[in-house]
Design a protein that fits this description.
Elements: H1 18-23, E1 28-32, E2 35-40, H2 44-53, E3 55-59, E4 65-69, H3 73-80, E5 93-95, E6 98-99, E7 105-107, E8 110-115, E9 118-122, H4 128-137, E10 144-146, E11 151-156, H5 160-168, E12 180-185, E13 188-193, E14 202-207, H6 213-223, E15 229-232, H7 236-241, H8 277-286
Parallel strand pairs: 3-15
Antiparallel strand pairs: 1-2, 3-11, 4-9, 4-10, 5-8, 6-7, 8-9, 11-14, 12-13, 13-14
């Protein structure tokens, strides 16, 4: 399915859900991790209200996975992040940072542990697949690193729990925040996690067979019909209100964790080994010269390029949680 107003390049990938998002009204796309992502279903403000009042389904296949396996997979994954993974159980997820030798942030993915030596890094927008493969070359560790056939959707909003029960049964209600389970939905292989980029109740549904993308999207939309589910896109308004970072917008390779008040994601007091440890020790000792802070804007609606944000006169707690 295509739209004559869209222009697409062959060097940029389409997600497995592309046809369905166009069918359901996507009117604009941008590029993230070398893939098109729907960014507009007509009204960003209405998208916000759909999210906080009912539920939205977002194509976030652009959250590409870096899969790390092999007998040294745990040790290698710890090498990539300053967050202590000692207590990361199989079936658990954690929000982590990936840092370079200077302590700069390369990405802030969600880490999923599928098995003892099987990990996924669910990425923000940067080329961590290449970084991880490069680090592995001279690491001396037995690891295999690749991008698997995995494409997530986000189902977010207060009625998302009811939709998930309709899809997967009542047991889904027992899935804890930042934990995952494996499912087979009418022959569609999935991983489901209680995660998302919305500060609302929500789930990420990781499709493990790209040929079934549109089938899965349509199945979820049908299940959500009576619960007010709408097609949508990740809400910048809601994530700012919720203090959730956006890589490149709020942090980049020249930003360190202490500037973002993310000290809790940096463990310098144990014997774990990770890239950037010495640099981060020095930064902590010397202190930072700048810091991201929270703002509350209480004024008349703002005008300008982002007029939608002006509809909301109070923007609370931009600080990262």
């Amino acid at each position: 399915m295509s739209n004559k107003n869209f222009g697409f390049g062959t060097q940029i990938r389409k997600s497995p859900y592309f046809d369905s998002t166009v069918k359901w009204g996507a009117t604009g796309f941008s590029v993230y991790n070398h893939m098109y992502i729907p960014r507009d279903f007509g009204n960003p403000e209405q998208n916000f209200w759909n999210l906080i009042e009912k539920a939205i389904l977002c194509d976030v296949a652009v959250e590409r996975q870096v899969e790390i396996t092999g007998s040294d997979a745990y040790k290698f994954t710890q090498l990539l992040t300053p967050r202590d993974l000692t207590n990361l159980s199989v079936g658990q997820c954690k929000y982590v940072l990936i840092t370079n030798s200077e302590g700069g942030i390369l990405n802030d993915p969600v880490l999923l542990r599928l098995a003892e030596n099987h990990f996924w890094l669910s990425l923000a927008d940067s080329d961590i697949l290449l970084w991880a493969q490069g680090v592995a070359v001279n690491s001396g560790l037995n690891v295999q690193i690749k991008e698997p056939d995995v494409s997530p959707l986000q189902l977010q909003g207060p009625t998302s729990g009811e939709i998930m029960v309709k899809l997967f049964g009542a047991e889904i209600k027992d899935l804890k925040y930042y934990w995952l389970r494996e499912y087979d939905l009418d022959g569609i292989p999935l991983i489901v996690s209680r995660t998302g980029w919305s500060s609302e109740l929500g789930y990420e549904i990781y499709l493990r067979d790209g040929s079934k993308g549109n089938e899965l999207y349509e199945k979820i939309m049908e299940a959500g019909k009576k619960y007010g589910l709408q097609p949508g896109h990740t809400s910048s308004i809601r994530r700012i209100e919720g203090g959730m970072l956006s890589y490149h917008a709020d942090a980049d390779i020249n930003t360190n964790p202490f500037e973002l008040s993310l000290d809790r994601l940096v463990n310098l007091d144990s014997d774990i080994n990770f890239i950037g440890k010495d640099a981060l020790k020095k930064i902590k000792q010397e202190g930072v010269t700048r810091k991201q802070v929270g703002l509350e804007i209480d004024c008349k609606p703002l005008s300008g390029p982002n007029t939608t944000f002006g509809k909301f006169t109070k923007i609370k707690k931009i600080l990262a949680k």
